[in-house]
């Protein structure tokens, strides 16, 4: 399980230095056609696998996250769900063995458009095969096989990670015992497709994108940054921003309020400066082509294609228990979609708990309102 | 009231050919500083002004609309609110004299960044002074003075038109008797600022925008088109799109689903094709610089600046009756903002009717669900 030198990624998109990279296949066929001679997956683990391997919790991530879900002895930087995962935290690593898997196609270590094609010695870029959520599930399952893990006590997935988890629970139904799904969907809605389609168009229309052949030293930062801002308007909520920012101005508001110039290093309103700050953080770590692939995979996702209907497809799952968490202020993955998941899994025979959480941070609430989510998750895990 | 030759606009942004253009000032000071030696306003009228001029209904428009609210004997093309205004329609022109005014700063005939600066013989572009909603109100009031209209029986404003109407009712409180406000706000919310800030950034980042000095033959169409698409995701609703488009694919979906190429003349999902179609219509008629000015004016709007608070500012209105219409699915101008308007006008002494309409088309519902809106508007006007 040492880091594979074969899976070099372009320097600016370094995976977290604590991720383990494991070659999982030397012949990977993608669902929509296309093939790679080698697929590797990046992951991290916390806690200790028990003797009968019955304490495995697997976390699939949202579109933009790495496998670094929480800090560890190897990497003490805070993870993307730091307060949720760890010893004594809701997803407790004291007795559980937690594995967080970086999604196939993500630029944080798993094989992706920034990985080097050994045949050419260059990154795949758009020669990377068309990617689906099912491909992500398949690659994750190959990793678990490699790690000789046959059963998952609990599979956790928020957002894209939830789509991945739903696909996994249908495709590898004997592997998953229990599931925790957060703000996700059995298929992409037209509203979510519209938002993502726009984000991709903005990246493609950045002249620096150059049909995918951008310089990694000078990537299409404008496109990625603006796409991220659009994402944020759909990830958070109007109510949160009204309470948090209102009409507050930045300290340099007077200087900058009048210009329509191309320079936007500063902004008049705090909400504008906040979006810029968050989006710059993202533009500097996320690869544009990877973003396009992961985004389109979400649009294509429709679990109903695995049966006669969504219900029929979900009937293939063999889950004991499921916790389905939705958020009232989530406009991107609205409550209706969470209800459909809960009803579908219930009809499939699982014992389902469905909760509508009254958080104000929209789709991102699971990352922010740790208290509310932690309580529900802790209760659920304690009773498994 | 003949068309002024002095107010030539750049050919591609022709105003509706039925609009009358009237010079309203030869010395116009803008609220934030800045000055123009000449301001003209474009408008259209329907019906006949009665002897004592007591039958005047004035309509202020949303950001993207012209003065052509409905067809007329001079221009039989359908207006932007065709089914709402006309003989026998909810805003009945049989006995009322309806004036629809094109907003100052809009490219449809009123003085704007595409108007020719007589001193230079060239369009103002970004030399146009910073524009506020209050400037729009002031220019509209000057037009009414010019037309010798001292009293407005009913002032109507949806969206930006509603902000304009609120400002007008505060600034020229002796002119307005009754008001009809639709999906608008007493001040811009941070969520709405975020959306508009993004739209402007996308236009500015289009290389063809060229700091405002684009060629009118080759304007920044990508920027304007994508900005419009972002607008549409905030103008409509996820529920409407789920019902209307679902996951339907376009007929050429198979051809185009795989590409991340720069060409997006066709799309895989119907929702994508719909957005593209609507946005192309817009990009071909709306000027980029005008869009920037009107958009920023909305962010700056805060009626509270005309008093110690929103309530204090609204207390300056002298309205008899008000109808305030909000839509449950409107995320851009949510119900909370409509309630605030209704309560403020009520405390100011107006007899206020406030209705939350259960339309699914979001902010744009007033343009689409004519049956629901028409009923409310007709009832209100009939009792004036």
Verbal overview:
- 2 copies of one chain form a homodimer.
- By secondary structure, chain A is an alpha/beta fold.
- Chain A has 2 domains: about 5-190 and about 305-380, Alpha/Beta hydrolase fold, catalytic domain (Rossmann fold, 3-Layer(aba) Sandwich), CATH 3.40.50.1820; about 190-290, Rna Polymerase Sigma Factor, Chain: A, CATH 1.10.1740.110.
- Chain A contains 12 helices and 14 strands.
- Chain A has helices spanning about 135-145, 160-170, 190-205, 220-235, 240-245, 255, 270-285, 290-300, 310-315, 335-345, 365-370, 370-380, and strands at about 20-25, 30, 35, 40-45, 55-60, 85, 90, 95-100, 115, 120-125, 150-160, 175-180, 320-325, 350-355.
- The model of chain A is unreliable at about 1-10 (pLDDT under 50).
- At the A-B interface, helix 3, helix 4, helix 5, helix 7 and helix 8 of A face helix 3, helix 4, helix 5, helix 7 and helix 8 of B.
Oligomer: homodimer
The biggest sheet of chain A, with number of strands, parallel, antiparallel or mixed sense and barrel status, is: 8 strands, mixed
- CATH fold name of the largest domain in chain A: Rossmann fold
Order of helices and strands of chain A, N to C? EEEEEEEEEEHEHEHHHHHHHEHEHH
Provide the spatial order of strands within the biggest beta sheet of chain A: 1-4-8-5-11-12-13-14
Q: How large is the radius of gyration of chain A?
A: 20 Å
- Which pair of protein chains has the largest interface, and what are the residue counts? A-B, 58 and 58 residues
Instruction: Give the CATH class of the largest domain in chain A.
Output: Alpha Beta
Q: By CATH's scheme, which homologous superfamily of the largest domain in chain A applies?
A: Alpha/Beta hydrolase fold, catalytic domain
N- to C-terminal distance of chain A: 30 Å
Number of domains of chain A: 2
Total number of strands of chain A: 14
Tally the helices of chain A: what do you get?
A: 12
Give the CATH architecture of the largest domain in chain A: 3-Layer(aba) Sandwich
Fraction of residues of chain A in helices?
25-40%
The low-confidence runs of chain A, each spanning 5 or more residues with pLDDT under 50, are 1-9
């Amino acid at each position: 399980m040492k880091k594979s030198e074969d899976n070099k990624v372009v320097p600016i998109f370094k995976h977290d230095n604590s991720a383990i990279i494991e070659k999982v296949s030397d012949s990977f066929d993608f669902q929509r056609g296309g093939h790679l001679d080698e697929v590797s997956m990046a992951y991290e683990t916390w806690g200790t696998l028990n003797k009968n391997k019955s304490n495995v919790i697997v976390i699939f991530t949202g579109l933009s996250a790495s496998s670094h879900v929480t800090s560890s002895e190897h990497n003490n930087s805070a993870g993307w769900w730091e307060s949720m995962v760890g010893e004594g935290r809701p997803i407790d690593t004291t007795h559980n063995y937690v594995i967080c898997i970086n999604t196939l196609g993500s630029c944080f270590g798993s094989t992706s458009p920034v990985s080097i094609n050994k045949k050419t010695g260059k990154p795949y870029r758009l020669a990377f095969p068309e990617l689906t959520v099912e491909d992500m599930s398949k690659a994750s399952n190959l990793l678990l096989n490699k790690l000789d893990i046959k059963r998952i006590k609990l599979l956790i997935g928020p957002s894209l990670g939830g789509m991945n988890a739903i696909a996994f629970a249908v495709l590898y139904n004997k592997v998953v015992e229990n599931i925790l799904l957060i703000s996700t969907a059995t298929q992409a809605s037209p509203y979510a497709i519209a938002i993502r389609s726009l984000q991709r168009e903005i990246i493609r229309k950045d002249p620096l994108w150059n049909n995918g052949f951008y310089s990694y030293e000078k990537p299409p930062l404008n496109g990625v940054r603006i796409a991220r801002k659009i994402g944020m308007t759909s990830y958070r909520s109007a109510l949160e921003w009204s309470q948090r920012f209102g009409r507050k101005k930045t300290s340099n508001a007077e200087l900058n309020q009048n210009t329509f110039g191309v320079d936007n290093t500063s902004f008049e309103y705090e909400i504008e400066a906040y979006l810029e700050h968050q989006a710059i953080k993202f533009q500097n770590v996320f690869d544009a082509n990877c973003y396009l692939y992961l985004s389109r995979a979400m649009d294509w996702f429709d679990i109903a294609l695995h049966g006669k209907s969504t219900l029929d497809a979900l009937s293939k799952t063999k889950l004991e228990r499921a916790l389905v968490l939705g958020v009232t202020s989530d406009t991107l993955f609205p409550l209706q979609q969470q209800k459909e998941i809960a009803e579908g899994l219930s009809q499939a025979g699982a014992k389902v708990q469905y909760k509508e959480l009254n958080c104000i941070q929209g789709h991102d609430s699971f990352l922010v309102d740790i208290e509310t989510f932690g309580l529900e998750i802790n209760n659920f895990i304690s009773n498994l």
